[in-house]
Design a protein that fits this description.
The chain has helices spanning 2-19, 28-51, 53-77, 80-97, 100-106, 113-121, 123-137, 148-165, 185-189, 192-221, 226-241, 244-254, 256-274, 280-305, 314-342, 345-350, 353-378. By secondary structure, it is mostly helical. Helix 1 (2-19) packs across helix 10 (192-221).
């Protein structure tokens, strides 16, 4: 799944730019990926409760195969609308695949959840190199339209994923939405910890989506070639997932909220670099820091979220969380092309500052609240 996503991130804005008559619409296809995930995440959760995680994951892979076929055909025919439809199916696949991390968390003890979530995300380390390089190697392999071969190659990637899933042995979700002991979703979602968990992941994903989506357009405008763009995106995706080998351990050692705060600070550092120059080094370093910051916020926020619901409440709590995440990411990706085309790279970066600031104060408030509760309980 992450290999397909890394290829999409590397190519979709450029393909959209080539196919769209209005160049402000270049990032709409990537926004459609996130929109597809947004509308799928709640139905996927309900369906997997009934048919099991593995069957749900396999359905998601089937949508990925269909999306790869339609997208490659659309690029060959230079059809922007059909391409947008094709990549939307990748989003549907992601709507199912987003539950991989929760499936891992469900299978371990509570104190090991952050490490389990981290190790699942570590699969992105390999994807960071496969996706962008696959895009480069297969860019002109089929037809006269660039990247047709790249999307055809994803069919093989999804078929490999389906073969792996055949060997997946995983327990049924095993809980009911109408359990008499379960709280309503509105009660769960009003908890401060739940709100801050969602806000933190929204901030990380929103910043990542807006900045990363616009990077290929900004580098193109700065006259960097596609090899440089693929290099920057590749290392950005590597930075998103490589920390996963240690993020769980860092949380255990330094505390969940401290790691989340560190994630926000890293994204602030990314913005400072992005707004200070447009050399390859500026793009590479800024996007690298953005990736690490996203990882800390995503793993931290997901771990905090798992502390806010019971076994009988997890499907709806997880589904609402992912629905809100993909709604935010869809909006960010949708706006990225228009903002960059009309206002430029600097405004792209500045626009994420307000939400990041809110998250800093929210995490600091929760940290202070938890410290006070510890002191009161000791006294």
């Amino acid at each position: 799944m992450m290999t397909a996503n890394s290829l999409l991130v590397t190519t979709s804005a450029l393909v959209g730019f080539a196919l769209a008559e209005n160049k402000s619409m270049a990032t709409i296809p990537l926004a459609m990926v996130f929109l597809g995930a947004m509308v799928t995440t709640i139905p996927a959760s309900i369906l997997m409760k009934r048919i099991g995680r593995r069957n749900g994951f396999m359905i998601g892979v089937c949508f990925g195969i269909l999306g790869a076929i339609i997208s490659s055909w659309a690029i060959l025919k230079m059809d922007f609308v059909l391409y947008s439809i094709g990549v939307t199916l990748f989003g549907v696949s992601n709507g199912f695949g987003g539950y991989y991390r929760f499936a891992a968390a469900d299978g371990v003890a509570v104190d090991r959840r952050s490490r389990a979530i981290s190790l699942v995300l570590a699969g992105g380390v390999i994807a960071a190199f496969i996706g962008p390089n696959m895009a480069s190697w297969t860019r002109d392999l089929i037809g006269s339209a660039a990247f047709t071969g790249s999307y055809v190659s994803l069919v093989a990637v999804f078929i490999m994923a389906m073969l792996l899933l055949l060997f997946l042995d995983i327990k049924q979700v095993g809980e009911e939405w109408d359990n008499k002991n379960a709280r309503s979703i509105w009660v769960i979602a009003r908890q401060p910890a739940y709100i801050i968990a969602v806000l933190s992941v929204l901030a990380g994903f929103g910043a990542m989506s807006l900045i990363m989506t616009a990077t290929s357009l900004a580098m193109h405008a700065s006259r960097h070639n596609f090899t440089d763009t693929a290099f920057v995106i590749q290392w950005h995706i590597f930075a998103m997932y490589a920390p996963s080998f240690v993020t769980g351990k860092l949380i255990e050692k330094f505390g969940l909220l401290n790691i989340m705060l560190a994630g926000v600070m890293l994204i602030f550092a990314c913005i400072a670099l992005n707004t200070s120059g447009n050399s390859l080094a500026h793009y590479w370093t800024g996007l690298f820091l953005l990736g690490i910051g996203w990882n800390f916020l995503f793993v931290g926020g997901t771990t905090l979220l798992t502390e806010t619901y019971t076994e009988s409440e997890k499907s709806k709590a997880q589904a609402l969380n992912d629905f809100l995440i993909f709604s935010n990411v869809s909006f960010a990706a949708l706006c990225a092309g228009a903002i960059h085309n009309n206002f430029g790279w600097l405004i792209i970066n500045y626009s994420v500052l307000p939400l990041l600031t809110i998250v800093v104060f929210s995490i600091a408030w929760l940290k202070l609240k938890n410290n006070r509760q510890v002191i009161w309980s000791e006294n």
